[in-house]
Amino acid sequence: MAERPLNNFKSAVNDLMNGKIKTEETTGATYTSEVTKPLYAEHSSSSTFTKVVEDTIPKNGISIISSDLVIEGNVKSKSDIRLNGYIKGDILCEGSLISTGTVDGNVRGIGVTLSGSTINGNVIAKGDLVLDNSSTIIGDVRSAALSVNGKIKGNVMVSGSVILQENAIVMGNITAKSISVENGASIKGTMEIRSAAINDEDFNAKMPSPRSTSTSVSKTAAATSVATASAASATSKE
Known about the structure:
Layout: H1 9-17, E1 20-22, E2 32-34, H2 48-56, E3 62-65, E4 70-72, E5 75-77, E6 80-83, E7 86-88, E8 91-93, E9 96-99, E10 102-103, E11 107-109, E12 111-114, E13 118-119, E14 123-131, E15 136-138, E16 141-148, E17 151-153, E18 156-158, E19 161-164, E20 169-171, E21 174-176, E22 178-181, E23 186-188, E24 191-193, H3 210-237
Parallel strand pairs: 3-6, 4-7, 5-8, 6-9, 7-10, 8-11, 9-12, 10-13, 11-14, 12-14, 13-15, 14-16, 15-17, 16-18, 16-19, 17-20, 18-21, 19-22, 20-23, 21-24
Antiparallel strand pairs: 1-2
């Protein structure tokens, strides 16, 4: 059955946008065509676009703080951090920190590498801590291993080895399992090398056996008695 043309194009567009298109009524019946799905899908976290973005983000990525960026406040990251700018606050990094910038605050990370960087605060590294000849730390240092060619003003406690290279300047006490000092390094403070293989028992002197000493004394006394008796016998005969 032929349909009548729509009277108004605008009305037809409105009907389409409302989800229904009305057709000719025939024999008392109205035929409708319903739009079952919206033209544009609603945004959700499971949408294809969101999924693509998530897949393009590396699971072990790196957070980069550019040289022209200044952050006032604490920074916490589950990934590695590359710091080229300035942070006024503490840094807590569950990865490694590579810094060419400046930090006014404490720093904690798995590994810390400083290249032309300044940190005004304490530094804790679960792994290696490395300073080049243009880096400075003003604060206490704790790490598993330490290699210094720059400057540290503060106490240093390392569970492993410390290497002080030729340009190193350390003002503070150093405690480590081993300490290597290259010619040219400057230190003002004490150095303590800790080793679990050494204890007080290693310095207990062993005294001579008392039994062997008393036997020697008895033999000497017996010889003296025999000599005295012989001299007395000779005198009486005269």
